[in-house]
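Why should sequence recovery work at all? Because a backbone constrains its sequence more than one might expect. Tight turns favour small or flexible residues, buried strands favour hydrophobic ones, and helices have their own preferences. The token representation captures these environments compactly. In the example below, the structure is given first.
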């Protein structure tokens, strides 16, 4: 099953601005889709029922089939500035909006404008989000490119998306870049602290989803360079994967150890990753 990675360009990166594919050995397979509508791509998510890959491009959202052909397109969405993307409990595709600082929910047919599921400006700078099995929404709030923001994780009940409750706000070593809800229900974030610093400490951090207590810290332990960690994904093997500046690093989630870099690719500038069958 190929591993797909979005390689962003962006003002603070030097990536390729395409969707790249790698085989099970980590060897590059080239560009997954050469469609010109894919520009500075960010978030990725799949719809297993329809076997489509949803991708956040610079100014639109696209759905691709297993051959890399674009089969759905929202068209240009003014001011989109997307981050990550996941499917919500109601089946809609949700996109993090970095400039508007909220989340946009789109029908999976990508034919309607969509709606904000959180009030605009809900956090200083959104850095990844996810839903648990009950529909509870977790949102990481980090530092933006301008250096402003906070380092926290907030939660929203299914019945009230307007009032966040603080889950994590007092971890001095937290500077979140992405968030995922683990199979055990806990919240995992990739962290670079201090954000953007040459000597930043990069970790994955697991928090109890009810108490917000830090459960575990995953580090590369010298097994990989692991700089500028971004997107998180659980693989079909149960391992936890994180894409970073020049590599994709795997972690044994059960044991808490680093398994090393499964992909090494100069200037990757990875933002999101997914295992997607062709």
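From this structural description, the recovered sequence reads:
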């Amino acid at each position: 099953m190929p591993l797909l990675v979005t390689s962003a360009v962006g003002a603070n990166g030097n990536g390729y601005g395409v969707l790249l594919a790698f085989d099970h050995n980590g060897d590059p397979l080239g560009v997954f889709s050469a469609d010109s509508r894919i520009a500075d791509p960010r978030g990725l998510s799949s719809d297993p029922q329809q076997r489509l890959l949803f991708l956040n491009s610079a100014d639109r959202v696209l759905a691709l089939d297993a051959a890399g052909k674009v089969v759905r397109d929202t068209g240009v969405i003014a001011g989109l500035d997307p981050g990550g993307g996941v499917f919500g409990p109601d089946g809609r595709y949700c996109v993090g909006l970095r400039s508007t600082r909220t989340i946009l929910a789109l029908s999976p047919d990508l034919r309607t404008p969509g709606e904000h599921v959180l009030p605009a400006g809900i956090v200083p700078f959104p850095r990844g989000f996810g839903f648990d099995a009950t529909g509870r929404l977790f949102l990481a709030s980090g530092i933006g490119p301008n250096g402003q923001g906070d380092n926290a994780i907030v939660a929203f009940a299914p019945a009230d998306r307007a009032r966040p409750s603080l889950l994590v706000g007092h971890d001095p070593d937290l500077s979140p870049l992405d968030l995922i809800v683990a199979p055990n229900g806990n919240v995992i974030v990739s962290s670079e602290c201090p954000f953007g610093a040459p000597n930043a400490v990069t970790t994955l951090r697991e928090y109890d989803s009810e108490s917000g207590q830090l459960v575990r810290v995953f580090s590369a332990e010298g097994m990989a360079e692991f700089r500028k960690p971004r997107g998180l994904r659980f693989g079909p093997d149960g391992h936890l994967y994180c894409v970073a500046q020049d590599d994709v690093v795997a972690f044994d989630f059960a044991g808490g150890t680093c398994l090393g870099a499964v992909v090494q690719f100069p200037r990757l500038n990875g933002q999101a990753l997914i295992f997607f069958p062709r």
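A few observations help interpret the result. Residues 17 and 40 are 4 Å apart (CA to CA).
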